[in-house]
């Protein structure tokens, strides 16, 4: 997702960051949205933390209707934004890798019929820059074709508006993601049964990978971890040896 900057009232630009609500999502790409997301207690991974379901189905026994987690109505970004363009890191990286591999391709340089130049798709401006669109029988994987704009229905984009739009979009290209993730590492496509997840929502493009990497991407920063540990030890010590009231 693009880290958009917007002008404030004083003409300064503000970097848009993912909100704490957005960072709490453990978002898997292995099935429908109702079963895809769990919500962590905080933005950081804790081994013993109990996650809550993002979607709760209706229950006749409890006489409750189906519902979405409370974070679904919170802002996706901070400060809130009304629109965002979604990109995917592995797709962007694969286009760059392809361009690098064919930049000095010997066969293409000396056989112009194997190398085709063209502007980016949709660029109809006069004197548009040309790119290698095809080389050695391979078409360039235009990353610009793989973008999605999400627009808020109200004052700002909520977590639910975002995941409701992006989840089916990502699931629709799941096979392509598995293919590209393999190519980036110089390997065959990842197996179809690979469990994928959105590891990082931004700022910048989404990072998609194996869901076993989600915990690593959500580690508590070392300094924050040390401070949290110190507070926990201080609280524990205070419970063991409470301060006696002054007579």
TrEMBL record:
Low complexity bias: start-end ranges: 225-240
Query: Native species of this protein?
Result: Schizothecium vesticola
User: So which domain of life are we looking at?
Assistant: Eukaryota
Q: What is this protein called?
A: Uncharacterized protein
According to the record, the residues making up region (Disordered) are 225-247
């Amino acid at each position: 997702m693009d880290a958009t900057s917007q002008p404030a009232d004083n003409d300064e630009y503000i970097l848009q960051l993912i909100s704490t609500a957005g960072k709490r999502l453990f978002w898997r790409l292995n099935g429908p949205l109702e079963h895809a997301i769990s919500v962590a207690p905080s933005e950081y991974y804790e081994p013993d933390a109990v996650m809550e379901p993002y979607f709760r189905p209706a229950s006749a026994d409890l006489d409750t209707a189906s519902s979405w987690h409370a974070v679904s109505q919170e802002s996706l970004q901070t400060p809130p934004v009304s629109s965002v363009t979604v990109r995917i890191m592995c797709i962007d990286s694969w286009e760059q890798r392809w361009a690098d591999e064919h930049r000095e391709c010997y066969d293409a340089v000396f056989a112009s019929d194997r190398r085709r130049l063209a502007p980016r798709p949709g660029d109809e401006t006069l004197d548009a820059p040309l790119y290698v669109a095809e080389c050695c029988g391979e078409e360039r994987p235009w990353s610009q074709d793989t973008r999605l704009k999400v627009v808020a229905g109200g004052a700002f984009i909520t977590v639910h508006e975002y995941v409701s739009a992006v989840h089916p979009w990502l699931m629709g290209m799941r096979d392509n993601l598995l293919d590209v993730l393999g190519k980036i590492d110089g390997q065959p496509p990842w197996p179809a049964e690979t469990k994928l997840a959105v590891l990082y929502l931004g700022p910048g493009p989404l990072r998609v990978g194996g869901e076993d990497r989600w915990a690593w991407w959500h580690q508590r920063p070392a300094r924050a971890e040390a401070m949290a540990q110190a507070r926990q030890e201080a609280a524990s010590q205070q419970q063991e040896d409470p301060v006696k009231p002054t007579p």
